[in-house]
Amino acid sequence: MQQPRHRIRRYRRPLALAGATALVIATMASASSTLPAAGRATAGPVAAPRGTGLGPCRIPASMGVQMSEGMPTPPGYARSTGQIKALNLMIDFPDAQATEPAADRLAEFFPQTSDWFRTSSYGRLTYVPEAPLEDWLRMPLPFAEYGIERGSPYEPGYRKLVKDLVAITDAKVDFAAYDLVNVLVTPNAGPSALDTVLSVTFSGNDDAPFADGVPLANTSFVYSRQDDGSGSYSETGYRVLPHENGHVFGLPDLYTMEGGGSVGHWDIMSEDWGANNDLLAWHKWKLGWLDNSQIRCAAMPGTTEHVLEPLASEGGTKLAFVPLSAQSGYAVEVRTPAGNDEAVCRPGVLIYKVSSDVDTGQGPVSVADSTEDSGGCTRRPNVHAELSDAPFEPGETFTDRPQGIRISVLAKDADGHYRVRITRP
Ligand SMILES: [Zn+2]
After folding, report:
1. How far is CA 284 from the centre of its chain?
2. Which residues contact 325 (CB under 8 A, 6 or more apart)?
3. Ligand 1 center to residue 55 CA distance, Å?
4. Transmembrane stretches, by residue range (predicted)?
5. How far, in Å, CA of 78 to CA of 231, rounded?
6. What is the value of pTM for the model shown?
7. What digits encode the pLDDT tens for the residues 334-383?
8. What distance in angstroms lies between residue 259's CA and the mean position of ligand 1's atoms?
9. Residue 11 region, left (φ>0) first, then alpha (ψ -120 to 50), else beta?
């Protein structure tokens, strides 16, 4: 049995809004922690790449990487297509007693979280939240005694918390009926999310306590309130939960110790504060929300042209991938202000490097900025500004000289489809 590894991520990214009444908000994406995989369910596309020509583009996970961008997602994570049932448990503590109804806490996350998954997955993931116990569950120990801090590993605090939770609920809840568990903690337990984000997910955890014959292998814990300071908490505050559940489906964190500077607001695994955002096309393919037929693999030497349709709309070709090695490549997709992407201020062709040998939180994805040092086009709170205008527009070319790669945006047609030319050695 492997010992779980974890990293403590502790950074503050103050974000000053323009004007005299500016709020300064320290933002931190939520933490993640993952543990050795179990063998229960598998996320991601099940179709074999055989015969599709996509083999070189399905870069596999590397040995020693805790949580990888590689395909396929290893076993043990929750299924990411079809209907999944989420058990929601609202908890408080003797030293942090809830001051509002448990139903209100649940309502901070639903139905928005289910809607978010329906939109992002083009209806392929039906997320059914259930809360069979309607009231707060009082934990037996004070919050402080579980010793939970940002970056806390599963042992010993979370194991104790989950065991206690099972002990007080098992007679009333059939844990085997659910694909994942959300523990929604009373917001007054622990520090404000403006200071420290405690929210965390333990995914693929076959060492978790069992209940009703199944390990509680995919559990997300949500603390405090991620209020982006714009007065729109009721619209944006739920977004920590789809981020945490992203880990349950096997997605790594895209923010790093330095913050959201490698991916910006282009994926909820990078930034889960502020305006709504979607997932990268790479993630949608990894989760099985895009078919193999919607992917173009530019693996052969020479020049190829591809017509890409906006990621937010259903159907059509969504992703061109240019493999560089067995563990990396460039992804090319079209992003527009539609669907879950509400903050896109420069629509166009987003180009990013995916590295399956780079671990969660270490920068497995990095977005190429078409307008470096521009300061970006957004002024929204908690949206990484510099990369907000990263997409390439018609007439612009991304070049990786050492690798001999050129990706040119040739044109955008009346339907909003983009023609892209890829040249590689
Ligand atoms: Zn995370």
Report:
1. 11
2. 59
3. 29
4. none
5. 34
6. 0.90
7. 999 999 999 999 999 999 999 999 999 999 999 999 999 999 999 999 99
8. 12
9. beta
